Amino acid sequence: MPRSKTALLQGTLDLIVLQLLQAEPTNGYDLTLRIQATSKDVLNVNAGSLYPALYRLEERGLIRAEWESTEKGRRAKVYSLTAGGRKHLADERETWQRFSGALAAILRTT
Amino acid sequence: MRSLVRRDAVERDMNDEMRLHLERAVERLVERGLSPADARAEARREFGNVGYIQEEARDARGVRWIDEILRDVRYAIRGLRRKPGFALAVITTLALGIGANATMFGIVDRLLFRPPNYLAAPDRSHRIYFARFIDGSERFGQSFQYQRFLDLRRSSTTMEALAAYSARRLAVGSGENSREIRVGAASASLWHLFDARPVIGRFFTVDEDGEPNGARVVVLSFGYWESQYASSHAVLGTTITIGPASYTVIGVAPRGFAGVQLETPDAFIPIGMAAVDDLGSDWTRERATYALNWLELYGRRKPGVTVEGANADLSAALRESYLKQIALDLRAAPIGILKPRVVLGSVLAERGPRRSADARVATWLLGVTGIVLLIACANVGNLLLASALGRRREIAVRVALGVSRGRLIGQLLIESMTLAALGAFAGLVLTQSGGQLLRRVLLPSVDWPNAITDRRIALVATLSAIIAGLLASVTPVVQAMKTDVISALKTGGRDGKKGGTGGRSSLRDALTFVQVTLSVMLLIGAGLFVRSVVNVSHLRLGYDADRMLLVETHLRGVAMDPVQKLALRRALMERAATTRDIESATLVCTVPFYGTCSGGVFVDGVDSTNRLGEFVKQSASPTYFATTGTRLLRGRAFLANDRAGGPLVVVVSDAMARALWPAADALGKCVRVRSATAPCRTVVGIVESERLANMDDDASFVYYVPDAQTTDVEWGDPQRVRLYVRVRGDAAAYTNAIRSGLQSAIPASAYLVVRPMASVLAPVTRSWRLGAWLFAAFGALALILAAIGLYSVVAYSVAQRTHEIGVRIAIGARLGDVTGLVVRDGFRVVVPGVAMGMGVALAGGRWLRPLLFQVSSRDPWVFAAVAAVLIAVALLASWLPAARACRVDPATALRSD
């Protein structure tokens, strides 16, 4: 059961979502497109992983959601970062830099 | 948390979002060139399992647990429907345990905890007792005189309301049609103790309560109004004959109102009028003196007054009143010796200083039902464990698929809780119907609350259900935690661990061991109580209660002078002599456990007979000893010429003779009755001692005076003439015949009350009978449950070992060996259980001692009998599955999975 795989992805998915929402608030569908585009097709997040992550982040108060009408007259639920979310993002980025730096150092040794 | 509350809105929100996502995905695919249908299929496939996503989403939101619980409950119910036998077994077992518990709690609650209905300020309301020193020790009393009540009411300052109450049985109707009803004679202040409003009409006021100029008004109880008047509003203003006089109905009490006592009276009348009617012309004389103790007092403290403060205040008032009494009656004991004081007790009589054994027995029985519930839980635990073991494969699969153990345990808990809830509901129904029967038998005429709607009983049932559910789920949960997935998948329905040769679960053994221990304890308790009852019934009372009836003439206030009373007594005796069913009759003054005529005796050579004990006087016709069957030990009984004017004679009881004249022969000795200067009565006979006031006491001091030599004032209650009547058979069957036979001898306005002696004595033995019946019933219930438990354990073990048994038979084991194997298996648990149960019973027996009657709490016969019963039951429970095991076809067994 790919439970462990999901667990790892969950932590990084949160980071991805927060980062992209900080750049520009958007809805769930557009977020999947943007992840695909920004990562140059390396990462492909499906709805099954994304929406639970969004709801979890909302429950933790890191993002907020609002229903809006887009230009085409269509309704969409738009997510954006809260102040707490911005702070959390900054912390997570720093943690990730340290982690990836350490990992790189280890991989350089033979 | 907000998500929980706005669940529906949140659900819709989520659905909308998913739908929009899908729409846009479809759009994009269509743009890329797919057909709409293909685009939708593709989009859906990429989206993934919507249901799963929604679940995960809900999970993330934290709404999931409610859904989970509801889903588990539905799943549990579905599972139960597939196994109706199992469900029925579990629910019935739990219903019995919870029902028994709730019923006993209802009884104990009524006796010890629940204040009377409608009582205002229960924490400030009390029943008033007094204490005084008699023979050096302080004794409590609960009956007050009318004058005392008036004195206390006048002098006390700390009580907001002080009420007097007397429960009596009075005749309603006239002549042959009169029946006795329970009447509460109450001062008008009684209504002030309660918050009740009359259903129709009003309650009586202080003006109506004064005497001798009060008003004859009556308030009916709700039950009486319902049954006798069909709840008609026209009853107001009508009259009923109560006792000798006519009373006007002025109101009806609300439903459930019972006054201060446990038993509901049928009607309430002012106490002043009750006194006037009861004693007639004697009332004006009795009223001013302090001779008759007949009232119970109740009161409510003023807010802010402590119990000690009220005690002190009332004690001062009591002393003041007592000093007035001494001024009137020089024979009264000096106040310095008596030291009277007032004690405020609980309104519930069973919690006061004069409590009976009933409450203690009921409390013991509550403990008993708790044990029965534990046994029931053990049984249910066994059943659930067996069911869980049968589902090992299913559970293993689910664990393999990723259900967390926590979730699994949660599911098992939900299952047992669902069963427990159903069991609790069934138990409440059981309490309602079965409990009704029980209460009517044990404590009739009490207004019992409706079990299903009563909050406290429902609460107890719910608590029991929760405890039962938790306890019962311990075993399957422990089993689930130990589940080894791989082996469970491989071996399926069988106990995996020991392959096919074990089949033993120490968990089940432990449960059965506990059941056997508890059953043994209960049965020993039951046996001890049953022996007590048997002892009581075999007691040599000194009279043949089974063949005797007590006849009482109630004169209903008609005043009779001594000559008329003498004529009445003679008429009754003559009528009795000619009535066919009566073998023999005698006039009496004292009736055992009912009313005693006492009288001091003075004997030359003995300083103070009072120090030796209480002397009871009995007035007896010459036929007395033939009627009661009391054995004459020496000398003679009375003869016809022991009459007024003849030589004064007396017959004494054996114990009295030995106490007064230990060294000499009592015959011929001189006894002076009532005063030291009375003329001598010669002792002409010695009889066995009758038990009069205390079942334990076979050394009562009774002396008998010929009825013809008893002066009028010595006959006791002037309104009653009493006879014993002996019949040729069981007394109860002759009640009506005697009543109609003797009716013609009494004045038309009077009426007869005829009761078998057994019913007069019944309240005395009630607590032993209560204990015996209920202990035995619950003990039997426990035994049945334990037997079922044992049977299921052994049967299960046999089922597990089918393979092994098949092998044994195939290689030549005899059927006897197989049976022996199975039975030994069963006994491995039973024998230690019996030993443990006996050990606990031996250790804890001394607490039961005060409730037993002439039985040691370590009675070897009872212990031996219980052990024998358990072993027999265990044999049976083991033998049945063993017999089935023997019929196993070896070939099939070897092939079985």
Give an overview of the whole structure.
The complex is a heterodimer of chains A (110) and B (897). Chain A has four helices and two strands; from the N terminus they run H-H-H-E-E-H. Chain A has helices at residues 3-23, 28-38, 47-59, 83-108; strands at 63-69, 75-81. In chain A, strands 1-2 form a two-stranded antiparallel sheet. In chain A, strand 1 (63-69) and strand 2 (75-81) form a beta hairpin. Chain A starts with a helix and ends with a helix. Chain B folds into four domains: 2-62; 125-347, no CATH class; 358-537 and 764-895, no CATH class; 545-763, no CATH class. In chain B, strands 1, 2, 3, 4, 5, 6, 7, 8, 9, 10 and 11 form an eleven-stranded mixed beta sheet that branches. In chain B, strands 14, 15, 16, 17, 18, 19, 20 and 21 form an eight-stranded mixed beta sheet that branches. In chain B, strands 13-22-12-23 form a four-stranded antiparallel beta sheet. In chain B, helix 19 (506-537) crosses helix 27 (860-886). At the A-B interface, helix 3 and strand 2 of A face helix 2 and helix 4 of B.
